[in-house]
Design a protein that fits this description.
Layout lengths: L3 H5 L20 H15 L3 E5 L6 H11 L5 E6 L6 H12 L7 H17 L3 E6 L7 H4 L2 H5 L10 E6 L2 H6 L5 H4 L2 E6 L5 H14 L9 H11 L3 H17 L7 H7 L7
Parallel strand pairs: 1-4, 1-5, 2-3, 3-4
Helix pairs in contact: 2-3, 4-5, 10-11, 11-13, 12-13
Length: 269
């Protein structure tokens, strides 16, 4: 269903919606480098930590990883419900892996390890992505080093990718989690976009939606970056609101006045 802005600007789709296919992801050199490092970690059968503030593109990097891994040689499993006690946490991992859920944590853990070992025998390397990992309770986080360890630490049959806010890195430095921290070989930090990256991002999203001409004036892109701090999720919200305001005002070009008028209409204000 088209909205007023999409119709007014004659776009094929809403340019700042979330449903972007992997092949159409906007990847600047910094995020491309982050994906390269994450791919290297997984191909080396190592564990990785992906950190960044909300909305800077951590999931974009994980999606980039998914697009780069061969489904023949890797099985990527995504786990989002991590704010659970130890037993329910391992149940979520079992469900994501397609493993029968057992009742006791010890049997859950054994079922997971048996599944991972079976994949290894088939020359398939499993990758478990734990999103919002900063929400994992200490009781569950404290057991991940057991999952990360296999055959006396000599046979890495799974790569864990912990994705979370910067405070996750600080939590892992606490003594109680040092066994897990010492098993993580890569720390990848995602930062907000620069002004130039924000402008390139907005331009690309508009072009991908069918925009044949620039819809945002240079001064609008400057204000858009200033008001969002280069947080791409916030850029999406404000840019979308700006297009709607411009359409309401019958303006074919979004200028800085339109962006400032749209800002109070968003949760960012």
């Amino acid at each position: 269903m088209t909205d007023s802005a999409q119709e007014f600007f004659q776009l094929r789709r809403r340019p700042f919606d979330k449903d972007v296919p992997d092949e159409a992801l906007w990847l600047d050199p910094d995020r491309t480098d982050a994906i390269d490092r994450l791919v290297d970690a997984v191909r080396s059968r190592q564990h990785a930590l992906v950190l960044g503030e909300p909305g800077v593109g951590k999931n974009c990097v994980v999606r980039g990883l998914r697009a780069r891994l061969s489904p023949v040689h890797f099985r990527l499993t995504y786990v989002a419900h991590v704010s659970l006690g130890k037993r329910d946490f391992y149940k979520q991992i079992c469900l994501a892996l397609g493993v029968e859920c057992k009742l006791m944590p010890a049997t859950l853990y054994a079922a997971i390890q048996n599944n991972l070992a079976a994949l290894a025998r088939d020359h398939v390397h499993p990758v478990i992505v734990l999103d919002e990992a900063h929400l994992i309770p200490d009781s569950s986080l404290g057991t991940l080093h057991v999952l990360a360890n296999f055959q006396w630490d000599s046979e890495p049959v799974v790569s864990l990718v912990l994705v979370g806010l910067p405070e996750l890195g600080e939590r892992l430095k606490l003594g109680v989690h040092r066994s897990l921290l010492t098993r993580i070989g890569h720390r990848i930090e995602i930062t907000p976009a620069t002004p130039e990256q924000t402008a390139a991002y907005v331009t690309r999203r508009v072009e991908d939606a069918g925009g044949r001409v620039a819809l945002f004036a240079p001064d609008a892109l400057v204000v858009l970056h200033e008001l969002t701090g280069g947080v791409l999720r916030s850029v999406d919200v404000l840019a979308d609101a700006s297009l709607r305001v411009a359409a309401h005002q019958k303006k074919k070009l979004v200028d800085r006045g339109v962006v400032r008028a749209a800002f109070p209409l968003t949760p960012l204000a």
